[in-house]
C-alpha cells in the first residue's frame, strides 16, 4: 500500500483489488469485521476490538493488540493502559491548546492474541498481523488521520502510515510507575513536540467547529 501527499496531507492509497474490504463505510465496517474469523483468535475472542473515538480524526493512536479487558468490552484501551493513554492525551492537549486535535484508537489486530479461551496474552504472529491488515487499512480510510501515534515497537515496525511517531506502549509506563513515571513524562514531551510540528494551528483549521469564540 502506498501513501500519497495531497495538499500537505498524507493519504493512504489502497490497491484497487482490495478496495472492497478496506474502504467500507463506518456501518459496513463494523458489520463486516465483527464477523471476521480469518484467523483462529477470531474464533476464541469474546469480542472484536475494532476502533473507538472520533472517526474521522486528526490523530490515530495505534497499539499492538487487545488485552483481557478490551477483549471483554470490545473497546480499545479501556483498561489500566487506557487510563495512562488518556492521561498522556489530556496532558498533551493542555500543553498545546493552540493545536486542538480529535483522536481515535485502534490496534494492529482486532482480536486478543491467545491460544485458548481465557489464556494469557501472547505476541501476535506475522500471519495474524497480515490477516488483519485490510481491517487496519479500513480504519485508516475511515479516520483519515494526519498523524498516527504508534504505541510500542510492534505497531511502529508494521505501521503503514507515513506521518507517524513511536512512543512506548502505555502498559510499559504502567510497569515503570504509571502516570508520574519518567516514561510518561518523556512520552508526553515527545507527543507535544511532534503534534505541534505536524498539526495545523486552531486558526488555520477549516472546520467551523474549531472557530475561535470571543
Ligand atoms: S485478528 Fe483480524 S483478521 Fe484475525 S480474526 Fe480478528 S478481525 Fe479477523
Features:
two-stranded antiparallel sheet, 7 strands, alpha/beta, disordered N terminus, five-stranded mixed sheet, Uracil-DNA Glycosylase, subunit E, binds iron/sulfur cluster, single chain, 214 residues
Helix-strand blueprint:
Layout (H helix, E strand, L loop, with lengths): L1 E5 L2 E5 L5 H4 L3 H8 L6 H5 L7 E2 L5 E5 L4 H6 L6 H16 L7 E5 L18 H18 L3 E5 L1 H6 L5 E4 L2 H6 L6 H17 L16
Parallel strand pairs: 4-5, 4-6, 6-7
Antiparallel strand pairs: 1-2, 3-5
Helix pairs in contact: 5-9
Bound molecules: iron/sulfur cluster.
The site of iron/sulfur cluster has 15 residues, from α3 and α6.
How would you explain this protein's 3D organization?
It contains nine helices and seven strands. By secondary structure, it is α/β, with parallel strands linked by helices. It has a single domain, classed as 3-Layer(aba) Sandwich (Uracil-DNA Glycosylase, subunit E), CATH 3.40.470. The strands form two sheets. A five-stranded mixed sheet has the order 3-5-4-6-7, sandwiched between helices. A two-stranded antiparallel ribbon has the order 1-2. Helix 5 packs across helix 9. It is globular. The structure holds iron/sulfur cluster. Iron/sulfur cluster is lined by residues 33, 36-39, 41-42, 48, 109-111, 128, 131-132, 135.
Our Rg estimate from Cα atoms comes to 17 Å
The helix/strand order is EEHHHEEHHEHEHEHH
Dominant shape:
globular
Report the strand count: 7
The span between the termini is 44 Å
What's the CATH class label?
Answer: Alpha Beta
Q: Cofactors and ligands present?
A: iron/sulfur cluster
Amino acid at each position: 500500500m502506498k501513501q500519497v501527499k495531497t495538499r500537505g496531507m498524507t493519504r493512504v492509497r489502497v490497491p484497487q483489488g482490495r478496495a472492497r474490504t478496506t474502504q467500507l463505510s463506518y456501518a459496513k465496517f463494523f458489520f463486516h469485521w465483527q464477523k471476521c474469523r480469518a484467523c483462529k483468535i477470531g474464533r476464541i475472542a469474546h469480542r472484536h476490538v475494532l476502533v473507538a473515538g472520533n472517526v474521522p480524526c486528526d490523530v490515530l493512536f495505534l497499539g499492538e493488540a487487545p488485552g483481557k479487558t478490551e477483549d471483554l468490552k470490545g473497546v480499545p484501551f479501556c483498561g489500566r493502559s487506557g487510563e495512562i493513554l488518556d492521561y498522556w492525551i489530556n496532558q498533551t492537549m493542555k500543553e498545546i491548546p493552540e493545536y486542538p486535535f480529535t483522536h481515535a484508537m485502534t490496534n494492529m489486530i482486532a482480536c486478543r492474541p491467545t491460544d485458548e479461551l481465557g489464556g494469557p496474552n501472547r505476541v501476535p504472529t506475522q500471519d495474524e498481523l497480515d490477516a488483519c491488515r485490510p481491517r487496519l487499512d479500513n480504519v485508516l480510510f475511515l479516520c483519515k488521520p494526519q498523524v498516527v501515534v504508534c504505541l510500542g515497537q510492534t505497531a511502529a515496525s508494521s505501521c503503514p502510515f507515513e506521518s507517524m511517531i513511536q512512543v512506548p506502549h502505555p502498559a510499559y509506563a504502567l510497569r515503570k510507575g504509571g502516570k508520574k513515571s519518567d516514561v510518561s513524562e518523556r512520552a508526553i514531551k515527545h507527543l507535544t513536540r511532534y503534534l505541534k510540528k505536524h498539526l495545523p494551528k486552531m486558526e488555520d483549521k477549516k472546520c467551523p467547529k474549531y472557530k475561535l469564540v470571543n
